[in-house]
């Protein structure tokens, strides 16, 4: 996700772009759930979760293994099919529903006990703030919204694009436009994660997490 591809045609749709991205390799991500999800969701009572921009489904599968029913959403059918295959081979295929949505156009129906979205970033135009407001609207009373995003470029990027702005946790919270008195802020902060660079060497990445609970 670090370096912008140079050859994106202006006509490329998000579905085409992300299908090509995932189709280029048998597996793009590690298959491990995101650390912030494990940290923040481990203590929640399982119910129905929504994972927005689920990619190859590692988070959705982890949630399913913790006892959640999961609706997992992505614009890439290639990624969704891959996630469904992994879920079936891990014995949780019946606990995850994989829904294709271009979230700039449509949003899954229903309300959820946990709405979780990790690294919903794109090199194509993405109305992230609007999507995150829809995510908040989809949280059931007592439910939690968990958002993790990049707070900067990873340590191995030597020529960061100066035009890229990574929203701070405060900006994410402001963008959610939550109704006064209806939400508690559980987490709002920046944290460093230990990761590996594309060559497999130890590296760091700075992420931000916002977690809010609807009263
Ligand atoms: C950086 S990846 C993160 C994937 C996964 N959440 C993870 O942490 O491994 C961003 C994901 O957002 C999805 N995405 C990008 N634009 C989207 C859109 N308009 N609608 C739905 N999903 C989108 C991509 O297909 C991709 O799987």
Automatic annotation (TrEMBL):
Domain Methyltransferase: residue ranges: 50-143
Keywords of the record: Methyltransferase, S-adenosyl-L-methionine, Transferase
A molecular-function term among this protein's GO annotations: methyltransferase activity
GO biological process: methylation
Region (Disordered): 192-215
Source species, domain of life: Bacteria
Descriptive protein name: Methyltransferase domain-containing protein
Native source species: Streptomyces rugosispiralis
């Amino acid at each position: 996700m670090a370096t912008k591809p140079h050859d994106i045609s202006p006509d490329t749709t998000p579905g085409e772009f992300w299908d090509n991205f995932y189709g280029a390799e048998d597996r793009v991500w590690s298959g491990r759930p995101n650390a912030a999800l494990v940290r923040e969701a481990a203590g929640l009572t399982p119910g129905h979760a929504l994972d927005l921009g689920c990619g190859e489904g590692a988070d959705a599968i982890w949630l399913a293994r913790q006892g959640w029913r999961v609706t997992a959403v992505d614009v890439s059918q290639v990624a969704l099919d891959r996630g469904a295959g992994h879920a079936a081979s891990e014995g949780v295929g019946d606990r995850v529903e994989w829904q294709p949505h271009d979230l700039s156009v449509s949003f899954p129906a229903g309300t959820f006990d946990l709405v979780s979205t990790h690294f919903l970033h794109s090199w194509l135009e993405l109305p992230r703030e609007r999507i995150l407001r829809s995510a908040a609207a989809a949280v059931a009373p007592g439910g939690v919204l968990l958002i993790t995003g990049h707070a900067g470029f990873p340590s191995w990027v030597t020529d960061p694009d100066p035009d890229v702005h990574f929203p701070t946790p405060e900006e994410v919270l402001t963008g959610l436009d939550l109704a006064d008195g209806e939400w508690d802020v559980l987490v709002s902060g920046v944290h460093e994660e230990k990761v590996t660079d594309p060559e497999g060497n130890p590296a760091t990445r700075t992420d931000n997490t916002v977690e809010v609970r609807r009263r």
